[in-house]
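Task card 7
Instruction: Convert sequence to structure tokens.
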Amino acid sequence: MKQKMIDFLLNNANPSIKLRVKKEILNCISKEEERKLKEEILEEKLIKFIGEKQLETGWLGLGFHGSSKNAGRYDNQEVGTKYMGEKGLKGTKILDRAMEAYAKTELEDMGSEFEIPASGSNLIRCACIARAHYDDVIDITPQIRLSLESFKRVIEVDSIYDVSRPVKNRRLFNKNERWPCRYHLEILAFSTDRWKNEKNAAMLAESFKKLMRSDRKEIINTPVACWIKNHAVNPLWLLNEGYSISGDGLNGHDNDGIRKTNLEKTEWLCRCGLYEYLPELRKEVKFVIDSVNEDGVYTGGIYEKEFRGWSPYFGAQLETDWKAKIRKQCDVTFRALLIGHYSGVL
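Output:
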């Protein structure tokens, strides 16, 4: 099955997927072949658009954390660097310069990620560095350690109530506390394997088992904010009980009755090495692999929003568009291949 998936992608996918299959899955690509594929990727319309928006400092566009009044969906530093990292452009001039800008540019003060849970402009920066695979160039070790501490906190307390306090119709995180968000998970999923060992993986799995609880509705639905500069600010996609990688988290089906999976979440947890430790993940990986047909194409249900375009909080589409059915098949099959690869099933 794995070889059929690989053959399908190498015969039909765009250059970025071909590059990553050869380099990430097969670990077999010559420097010349890699150079040629990167040249093709750099000629894609969207990559050229991002390049045209790069400032002299290396910064991409006029925004940082996604779209703003001055920046669109892609011409901002966060989405631009994550997208190019996923396109396999590490080592190219455009992405090297963008990463240098992260090292030299003073970021807007959104509070310290070490004092305020699930917040901080530097946390965003470090997640981008990890996602683009530059943590071997720019040190983010303190944020990797913080991410582990944040997930560990989940299993040290009964619930998020123990790290926050009630204020009117919401709760506020206590200062100097720890609690995980999407950016902590992103850092762990895409950083180098220095943090990965049996102890950390087991801890992370226990944390996710608790986050996947769905029986305490009052905790799932409680809004929790961060107190920054005398204002209540939403956290960076907080992770809390009710976390699910399939369907509604109860019966594995969405409202339309179709069994679906979140390929992004499943991939990230597999990248963290949790397959052997998390029964819910093993179930999801089985669904993904069982949904690959005899031609090596993934056919299972997905949440299309995670693929259609990019933002700070979602992004998986590497094909230029889905106007042709085969482009969608390549995008979703590539994610299924990554899941099989990082889970060790394929």
